[in-house]
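Researcher: Good morning. I'm working through a list of sequences from a screen, and I'd like to move beyond sequence-only analysis. For each chain I'm collecting a predicted structure so we can compare shapes side by side. This is the next one on the list. No need for commentary yet; just the structure.
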Amino acid sequence: MKNKIILILSVVSLSFASCKKYLDINENPSLPQEVKAELLLAPIIFQMANGVSQDLRQVNKFNQAIVGASGDVSSKIWEKHGYAAQSDVGGVMWRMVYFNFGRNIDFMIKDAVDNQKYEYAAIGYAVKAWGYQMLTDYHGPIILDEAMQDKLFFKYQDQKEVYAKVRLWCDSSLYYLDQKSPLDYSAHLKSEKGDNLFSGNMERWRKFVYGLRAIQYVHFVNKPDFVSKYADSIAYYVDLSFSSNSDDANVKFKGDKKETSSVAGPQQNNFVSTYYSRAGQPIVNYLGGGLRGTAATPVRMLHDPRLPLMLNYTNPLDSTFTGGLPNVTNTSVPHIMGPIIDQAYRGKFIFRDKVDFPLMTYAQLQLIKAEALFLKGDKDGAYAAYIKAIRSHMTFVNKYASADEVTIKEIDIAKYLLSSEIPQAATDLTLADIMGQKYIVQWGWGGLEQWCDMRKYKYSTDIFRQYQALSGSSLEYGDYCYRVRPRYNSEYVWNAKELDLWGALDPKYITKPTWSMTADN
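Model: Good morning. Structure tokens for this chain:
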């Protein structure tokens, strides 16, 4: 018996010695502290699209971009600018930043810096900056300095501090973009298991970072020093950013099965439910003659060549289009996915399985530049960027056309640019012209930035001409929503004391404008 015990102890000792190196590296084997950056990148980039797309379902309702066809209170509560109580609905980006990205981004950056994989360090900081930018634009105050610490309760910091940290992370990304890795990682970055945003093109990552800076600054239109301090910087960063549609930040999806299909496609089911699947009246009207004039009733294919490529006919026989309204059932409005064929939705425009999902585009950035220059008083510069945006979005829409759809030709673009929907001279350009086109350009994918636009201009129907104004009982708390409450289970269940300090236990907390939307510096 004694010999058997000695033998067992010897085997255990040898086993421990064989894995001692592993245990030295990973104090917790179920949560490795050192993971190769190459293994972490692809899942992180997938979560960029996944997190944003799922919370778009709620943001779209604030924007009236996509509404529901159900009378269920849990669906309509968001259209009334309320929220689902005791629910994590609307909290996917919170999970994206603090769990799906979580420590993985920090691990990726650490491995990249320690081992001179500078491309991965640059990407890590760029994604981290983007994630926190999206999260604070959505929620306002969030966990910043105490994020990823081993604590039970976490302190929040306001948007001003988060924005500053985002700019710092952007600078860190640019710093590592200027470094040269001793080894060549281009093959892995180009692979499906690598960089599914830019395929290892580091100059496009640089442009992405500059674009993020421009997007942040354009949120400051209500600051008293916007014109003197930010307008030129926005134009500067846009000029350093995407130079054409070929630079667009598109997360790539093969779409050959559910696991590889687009986050907005039919197989993922995010936009299939009747809760989140009817194009709103504003986009139908904007594409149907309502940018400068009055949209036809019903809307037909008479004005904008993008209309039949972006939206589905209500009645193909007479080529009519119908949009949904907030707080009604919209059962007669067609599904954004199109008809069901062979027991599955066909998909349409951005809502297909085998297409890219955009996070930032050239057309969007050109309209950000147009907006900034217009507010500065440079109408010529604004008009030039405005026309570039329209042209590029026509090409963008063509990319998402199916094989049996007729794409937009140059003659169609030229005709549209000469129509009454477009100001024919810079002197006639208005802010509503710019923001109306921006609504079209961001429809389907850029809902969070669209919501930033709506909030900073206080949901003005003078600027957003086709927005359906709400008042009285059509608003759950008597005013429009300006922030989404933090994720329920991680915050209202466990971190309520901190929430109370911010007034977030009051249901009307959501109607309080975030810092970036105010005149406070």
